[in-house]
Write a structure and sequence with these properties.
The complex is a heterodimer. Chain A is mostly helical. Chain A has helices spanning 2-19, 21-47, 53-77, 97-109, 112-127, 132-163, 167-193, 199-210, 216-225, 229-259, 278-286, 290-304, 306-328, 333-349, 355-359, 364-368, 373-403, 409-433, 452-470, 472-483, 487-531; strands spanning 81-82, 447-448. Classes of the chains: A mainly alpha, B alpha/beta.
Chain lengths: 533, 265
């Protein structure tokens, strides 16, 4: 059974690679990247062998706990999980959820993150090669920890997808997700405000984490090495129990997912009052021209399609994380406040960079209608700008009020609008030029289609960088205004940043819409082909 | 609507040398076909014959490797982009492509009309009439994703009709549609042809094509094997017999799949 699923996964991978040379390139890049990280981790863990048992315990315990947390939460907000073996395709086979869980656990290891984690987990055995019993416990702990990581990522995404079934719960869930993730971003801030981190404090935190489910498997050998074999074996038993619980939760979530095919209405036929509510009336007012119709359609999708919601949560959460981490570690507090609005503008402007792929093959309607490419591009851009511009402005004002840097408000506003506008422009071109696969409408929004994880990473990186480059004049003026110590010059630079930002942003958006429109018209058939592959 | 005027006397659809290759498979092989204006044209062929590929290339959804297509005399594939003027003349119901199914039925039909540049009040009125005619008025405010397969076909047909095109190209319009709804669709299409429009549809149902269409083309392996009026093509036999003879029937092997017989266990 397990061997069957594993060979199926490998065969799907091989056939996918055979079909598209880009998938090979993407896989190689991903492997190089992953092996680089793995090499660093392994080197560090091997070096820890020479360190004292206390130091090694702290480092491995903290790293392990972060790893487990990462496997549990990152797929929810960022990359999703590999959906090569989507359980819903196996639903007709006479298999129980429990049988599936065993096979899919092993299949989950056959991925770049799985490989990196496996290498790092095995390297902890080297760290703890300090006697036969320690090695044995370390090996068992590494295997338990590894299995827990993979199982946890599947359990959280399967359960979250199940919870996101009804529209109502979906909205609430997305909100809670955003709060949790941004709450995590506040942890370093809290540490900072209560006296910062010193070696002693880190050791105590690691000690506490070691007695939570996050750390049981990773700190069991440390207990043995420190002369507490009883505690070590207890942690090993607890880790095994934790794995069993996670597997059971995953099996339960899977069981439910297999008999509840994903759909928008959550099983019932949801009637959407077309003329009811002020929002629907406002959308109806937009529907006078083809462009307005595209905007209204896109706004309806933002509300009704969970894939947009999860993308949005990730987009709001990631800049928040960046700002909070920056605020607490590297940058002075004022700089983080200055960065808030520009980072938000950057993230929001970039949301449309794969917009056409989210339509799936439904984009045929635009192509068959002979819709001018410009109307398509402009309609989609407007659906974003209509709420993103006010949001960015509010963020700039709030950040200025919190940090008391009113003088720099024009500069942060300018930089934020430049990034938003250039993001819209770059997206208008990129979504017609390089669509990459996303989950099908109605599919698990946390799943990454086969072979898409790394392709999406490359496209995301490229569009992000280009957006930053286009907006760089306004960014440079913002930095200059922030670091100069002559107030008169700072004010002049700030207003110059606003003017430059408006010109950059508007110019990039218009240019992107026009050239993206031409691309869309020319590449219409290719876009349908990519989506229906 | 400049330049979209039909050329008098031109065929509704004229395909010349259409060719499409997917990797190692030649899906459509130098296919020629003329659909006279005002005809009710059936396209039949076995699975994988290239019907969907042909209709996609004839409607601007798939770029041919070679060959041309013209709608009422207006060339479709000109230069880098497919001609908007030709697309205006077409109403399209593709097979195997998604719809914007997070819209309600009414929103989807309205969207299709607005994308075609129709004024808002015209779209509003036609949407209501189309949904009523297709027996979807009760489900107008239900998301299309929650529709049954047959209802989805019907709402897609409404989206293809909303801008009143002179030529309708329908890929498998009767698939998954129940007999009552099918009768309704047939009545609408007959009325459309009686009013001077042209319908091209693909189907597996020989009976249906024989009853509904006045002309038929048999397609296999990307080529037209026979085309003309129903009488010409069937040449005295039934359409199904002629189809099997043209495509080449494989005699059933009595010994094959013996293990499938429950009594032999």
């Amino acid at each position: 059974m397990v061997a069957h699923l594993l060979s199926l996964k490998l065969r799907l991978l091989r056939n996918g690679l055979r079909r598209s040379p880009w998938q090979v390139v993407a896989l190689v890049i991903g492997l190089l990247y992953g092996l680089g990280i793995a090499a660093l981790a392994v080197a560090g863990l091997v070096a820890l062998r020479a360190a004292s048992a206390e130091t090694a315990a702290t480092a491995v315990g903290l790293g392990g706990a972060l790893l487990v947390l990462g496997w549990a939460l990152v797929p929810l907000v960022a990359f999703g999980t590999d959906a090569t073996l989507d359980p819903s395709r196996l639903v007709l086979l006479p298999l129980t959820a429990r049988q599936l869980v065993g096979g899919l656990l092993l299949v989950g290891l056959v991925s770049v993150p799985g490989l990196v984690t496996a290498l790092a987990a095995l390297a902890t055995v080297v760290t703890w090669s300090r006697g036969p019993l320690v090695v044995a416990v370390a090996l068992a702990g590494a295997l338990l920890g590894l299995a827990t990581c993979v199982a946890l990522s599947r359990a959280t995404t399967t359960a979250a997808a199940g919870l996101l079934h009804g529209r109502r719960t979906r909205e609430v869930g997305a909100g809670i997700g955003a709060l949790v993730v941004s709450g995590l971003g506040l942890v370093p801030l809290a540490l900072q405000s209560t006296g910062g981190l010193d070696a002693d404090r880190v050791r105590r935190i690691a000690g506490v984490l070691g007695w939570t489910p996050l750390g049981w498997a990773w700190t069991a050998p440390a207990e043995v090495a420190l002369g507490r074999p009883g505690a070590g074996l207890a942690k090993l038993v607890l880790a095994a129990l934790a794995l069993v619980v996670v597997l059971a939760l995953w099996a339960a979530a899977l069981e439910r997912a297999l008999v509840t095919p994903p759909s928008a209405g959550g099983g019932r036929r949801a009637t959407v009052g077309s003329a009811s509510g002020p929002a629907s009336r406002a959308l109806a007012r937009l529907e006078r021209t083809p462009t307005g119709a595209v905007t209204a359609r896109a706004l309806r999708y933002w509300r009704r399609d969970p894939r947009y919601l999860t993308a949005l949560v990730a987009l709001i959460a990631i800049p928040l994380l960046v700002v909070f981490l920056g605020a607490t570690s590297v940058l002075p507090a004022g700089a983080a406040a200055l960065a808030a609005a520009p980072v938000l503008g950057w993230a929001l402007g970039w949301t449309g960079h794969n917009d056409v792929a989210y339509d799936g093959s439904a984009v045929w309607l635009h192509v068959a209608s002979g819709l001018p490419g410009r109307a398509d591009r402009l309609g989609r851009a407007a659906a974003l700008l209509v709420w993103a511009v006010p949001l960015v402005l509010v963020a700039a004002v709030v950040a200025a009020a919190l940090s008391g840097t009113w003088g720099l408000l024009p500069a942060t506003t300018g930089a934020a609008l430049a990034l938003l506008g250039s993001g819209v422009g770059v997206s208008a071109v990129a979504s017609a030029l390089t669509p990459y696969p996303v989950p099908e409408p109605g599919a698990n929004p946390f799943a990454t289609p086969r072979g898409a994880a790394i392709a999406s990473l490359v496209a995301q990186l490229a569009t992000t960088v280009v957006t930053g480059l286009v907006a760089s004049p306004a960014l440079a003026l913002l930095v200059a205004a922030a670091i100069t110590d002559r107030p008169g010059l700072a004010a002049a630079l700030a207003w110059a940043a606003l003017a430059t930002g408006l010109v950059c942003g508007a110019g990039a958006a218009v240019l992107g819409v026009v050239s993206g429109g031409r691309l869309f018209e020319r590449r219409g058939p290719q876009l349908i082909a990519v989506a229906s592959r | 609507m400049s330049g979209a005027a039909p050329v008098p006397g031109a065929p509704a659809l004229s395909l010349r040398g259409l060719t499409k290759r997917f990797d190692d498979t030649l899906a459509v092989d130098r296919l020629d076909l003329d659909v006279p204006a005002g005809s009710f044209y059936g396209l039949v062929g076995p699975n994988g014959a290239g019907k969907t590929t042909t209709l996609s290339m004839a409607t601007g959804l798939l770029r041919p490797d070679a060959g041309t297509a013209a709608v009422l005399g207006t060339p479709l594939w000109t230069g880098a982009t497919a001609s908007v003027d030709a697309k205006r003349l077409l109403g399209v119901l593709p097979d195997g492509l998604r719809l914007f199914d997070r819209l309600t039925g009414a929103e989807l039909v309205r969207y299709a009309g607005l994308l075609r540049g129709l004024p808002r009040d015209v779209v509003e009125q036609r949407t209501a009439e189309l949904l009523a005619a297709l027996d979807l008025a009760g489900a107008a405010d239900v998301l299309v994703v929650d529709y049954s397969a047959g209802m989805t076909k019907k709402v897609a047909l409404a989206s293809a009709l909303v801008h009143a095109p002179p030529v309708l190209v329908l890929d498998e319009p009767f698939e998954a549609v129940d007999p009552v709804s099918a009768a309704g669709i047939r009545a609408i299409l007959r009325g459309f042809v009686a009013g001077g429009g042209t319908v091209v549809l693909s189907s597996h149902g020989m009976d249906l094509v024989e009853r509904l269409c006045d002309r038929v083309a048999v397609v296999a392996q990307g080529r037209v094997l026979a085309a003309g009026t129903i009488e010409e093509v069937r040449a005295g036999a039934s359409l199904e017999e002629r189809f099997v003879a043209l495509v080449g029937a494989r005699p059933a092997d009595a010994e094959a799949l013996a293990w499938l017989r429950t009594s032999s266990r």
